[in-house]
Design goal:
Layout: H1 3-7, E1 11-19, E2 22-32, E3 38-41, E4 53-59, E5 74-86, E6 89-101, E7 104-110, E8 146-151, E9 158-163, E10 165-166, E11 172-176, H2 181-188, E12 191-197, H3 204-207, E13 212-221, H4 227-239, E14 253-263
Antiparallel strand pairs: 1-2, 1-4, 2-3, 3-6, 4-5, 5-6, 6-7, 8-9, 8-12, 10-11, 11-14, 12-13, 13-14
Amino acid sequence: MALKDYLGEQLLGVAASYQPQGLVHHVGVVYPRANNELRVFIPKGHALAAGSMVTLHLDNRTGVDELDAELRVYRTSYKGRVIATDESWVTLQPVEYMLIHGVQVVEQYRAPGYDFPPDGRAEAELPVTPLRQLGPVQEKEHHNKVGILTTLALDQPHTTVLAFLNTQADDVFLISVPGTFKLRQLKRDPHCFFIIDERAKFTFEQAIDWNYTILEMQASQVPSSMPLYEQVRTAFVLKNPWEAGFFLMDGLEMVHLQCRSVVFAGEPRPYRA
């Protein structure tokens, strides 16, 4: 089956790419083709060119405000190459993707000869957060159960969707089991980005005016021995009750993303700390 059979004929996507001027995020409307190429309309324009490598986060959760521990939406981190541009339009050819529903892989693809670039960067434990007290939680994001994390993998950024808790000061908290790709990337480079959107409140017809926030972040860890850990756990589960079971897992890691700046779509940012 083609991606459009799972994701639909049109959906919203967040694209990240390394450009000479820095890491750039674009938000656009995505039209999957039967051959799994993507036509992407970026209304605010772009600087992508033929040959650009782009990672596009796709999921079909527009209008979905009730989730559970299995995160039963289709989602993928689609790695593609730009093969054509036309003003605000970009066409991407797939290089690699893995489509996930819940906790199962339902479709995957890797172009002949493509492999993940070897990453020789050393992993190091994240520094301990300097935060000692959880600030006021951002109540207006209570309905937004998941956001998109962009980590700075080699050659192409990596994107993943995660439950989160955020505060009025733009602190973001995530949890992860040990050894995940996203966590290993943060331990290689704690500079990252987090995208919060309003899709839970909109149907697609309304989503053309979709509100989104792109935050440039720096990652640190919240050890379970800190009082902050319990403060975050309580607020995290209150917002995301389906995540409660994860806090019973051995070795669970809590990550604090501290906001460095708010980024506008299309704005280049340095992608090495």
